[in-house]
Specification:
It comes from Struthio camelus australis. It is found in: Cytoplasmic vesicle, Clathrin-coated vesicle; Early endosome membrane; Golgi apparatus, trans-Golgi network membrane. Required for normal morphology of late endosomes and/or lysosomes in neurons. Binds phosphatidylinositol 3,5-bisphosphate (PtdIns(3,5)P2). Forms a complex with clathrin heavy chain and gamma-adaptin. Helices cover 38% and strands 8% of the residues. With 327 residues, it is of the alpha/beta class. The chain folds into two domains: 79 residues, Orthogonal Bundle (Helicase, Ruva Protein, domain 3), CATH 1.10.8; 180 residues, 3-Layer(aba) Sandwich (Phosphatidylinositol Transfer Protein Sec14p). Strands 1-2-3-4-5 form a five-stranded mixed β-sheet.
């Protein structure tokens, strides 16, 4: 075991070996092979190329070197093509902060039986008067950036449950094709996370209809990882045990506290609704308030051949119709 695997339990080490083809004897060579490909894309600014950073992309693509590099390139390409999204990419940004406090996203305390982090979204919580859908996407991406620092989650991955209860047609009308595509590109194509499943519950008919809109943008593997449960929570419980779910999902735990994850990120800033003061922010453990925008990453990380962007070529069980995996 190398120092890069120090955060993994023995069980997760074995899982990484069997499922992801991770080999401690060749780990540094694998990382270097991906790093060596950076020179083939002088049109992209690779703002981080350190070992630990590249490793998460290798794990996300089961140590297929070219696919890991493709994902790495698309990660930076997405951020630099959508600069407005990442100009103030921190938890205290007003839009991100409000989205976080409304539970976009939430995170359950217990992992599932595969060791995956369970993220939850309660769609009807979206307050259109205070923040946008883009702010919700930014809050989710920022949260994933924080969570993916955990090497256990790099290997085991995530599960997402979206509760569409009381999500109105007016709210759904804001889910435009361009907005959906922005989200899919940011999550499916440009982030090094493994999603074992995305579960829709209590979805109205118009959420079903959205499937026809997003289908052209979803990979086949992605479509197989989304399940529409409707009101049938028993089908959800077949995949995620009710012992670790809150009561909103028919689980045995108390109702979910929407501010749980936001308090983790915001710490003492959680109750401060004034304009955010970056200098006073004191995130726990991982310095989560630092600006994660491409510009600040460039200041803090080594840069290899920065340049302008050029897009890389991208190459219903009956009641649980698969629709998003990031694996």
């Amino acid at each position: 075991m190398t120092h890069l695997q120090a955060g993994l339990s023995p069980e997760t080490l074995e899982k990484a070996r069997l499922e992801l083809n991770e080999n401690p004897d060749t780990l540094h060579q694998d990382i270097q092979e991906v790093r060596d490909m950076v020179i083939t894309r002088p049109d992209i600014g690779f703002l981080r190329t350190d070992d630990a950073f590249i490793l998460r992309f290798l794990r996300a693509r089961k140590f297929q070197h070219f696919e890991a590099f493709r994902l790495l390139a698309q990660y930076f390409e997405y951020r630099q093509q959508n600069l407005d999204m990442f100009k103030s990419f921190k938890a205290t940004d007003p839009g991100i902060k409000q989205a976080l406090k409304d539970g976009f996203p939430g995170g359950l305390a217990n992992l599932d039986h595969y060791g995956r982090k369970i993220l939850v979204l309660f769609a009807a919580n979206w307050d259109q008067s205070r923040y946008t859908l883009v702010d919700i996407l930014r809050a989710i991406l920022l949260s994933l950036e924080a969570m993916i620092e955990d090497p256990e989650l790099q290997v085991n991955g995530f599960v997402l449950i979206i509760d569409w209860s009381n999500f109105t047609f007016k709210q759904a009308s804001k889910l435009t094709p361009s907005m959906l595509r922005l989200a899919i590109e940011g999550l499916q194509d440009s982030f090094p996370a493994r999603f074992g499943g995305i579960h829709f519950v209590n979805q109205p008919w118009y959420i079903h209809a959205l499937y026809t809109v997003i289908r052209p943008f979803l990979k086949e593997k992605t479509r197989k990882r989304i399940f529409l449960h409707g009101n049938n929570l028993n089908s959800l419980h077949q995949l995620i045990h009710p012992e670790i779910l809150p009561s909103e999902f028919g689980g045995m735990l108390p109702p979910y506290d929407m501010g749980t994850w936001a308090r983790t990120l915001l710490d003492h800033e959680y109750d401060d609704d004034s304009e955010c003061n970056v200098d006073s922010y004191n995130a726990p453990a991982k310095d989560l308030d630092k600006d994660l925008s491409p510009k600040s990453m460039k200041r803090s990380q080594s840069v290899v051949d920065p340049g302008v962007l050029k897009r890389m070529d991208k190459n219903e069980e009956e009641n649980m119709q698969p629709l998003l995996s990031l694996d």
